[in-house]
Amino acid sequence: MNNMNLTEFDFVMKYFKIEILEHDYIQLNNSWDYKDITSPFNRLYFPIEGTGIIKKNSQSTVLEKNYAYLIPANSTYDYFCENNLNKIYIHFKTSFIPGFDIFSELSEILKLSFDETNTSSLIHCYNSNELASKIKLKSIILDVISSFISKSNINFNKTYSHIIFLEPFLNYIEQHCSMNFNTDDMSKFFNITSSKLTREFKKHLNKTPNQFVNHLIIEKSKQNLMFDSETIKEIAYSFDFRDEYYFSRFFKKNVGVCPRTYRKNREIIL
């Protein structure tokens, strides 16, 4: 990143997105016990006191103070606490390309040193109502996330080349993200053949335009079901499904469970 030119800097400023979904400073006990949890967002944990454990198969990660932990989106773990654990947690998404979280391809939990001075500053800023403290809190979170990006060895140049080509098409798709999307309509809009457009999408995203739109619909629907109060019918209509039953079949085909079950059984553990 030291050789990043102005164009790449502008690219990061324009396309790097972080969305905070929820956060809290919480005290946990041995009732914090969940199995096989997979979440479509990243978890950022700052243990303050006590310990917790995150486990996959025979591999365990102990959550302890003076460290920060990143649990990548779409990874599956068991979460439990034998005694007590006080922590600040932040659930978030981060991306360059809509629908593709930067950390979602990671297979392991990431860990960073986060000493007592940093922890004290984090707690003070989190609990303060002053604007300056909230701005500093944001900078702390961004600094930790950027450190995790460095540890994850994300291929920035590859992402950069994808976005440079895809930008106009992604903007179009954001405006037409629905079941009415048609590749032919987009190809005509950009004066490019459908076959060439499909080849380029496969090259850059390993998905056809229609597959990419379906992927976005699923990701947006998951988030709506987990964090919003919209009814399933309202979610279905927002993506131009003809009714909620058609949406439910589409969702179950792609996720494995129907929207109602996904919302009912979701485990937004803290």
From TrEMBL:
Gene3D superfamilies, sorted: Homeodomain-like
Keywords tagged on the record: DNA-binding, Transcription, Transcription regulation
Record flagged with keyword DNA-binding: yes
One Pfam family named in its UniProt record: HTH_18
Molecular-function annotations in GO: DNA-binding transcription factor activity; sequence-specific DNA binding
Domain HTH araC/xylS-type intervals: 167-265
InterPro entries: Homeodomain-like_sf, HTH_AraC
Annotated SMART domains: HTH_ARAC (SM00342)
PANTHER family: ARAC-FAMILY TRANSCRIPTIONAL REGULATOR, HTH-TYPE TRANSCRIPTIONAL REGULATOR EXSA
Protein name as catalogued: AraC-type DNA-binding protein
Species this protein is from: Clostridium grantii DSM 8605
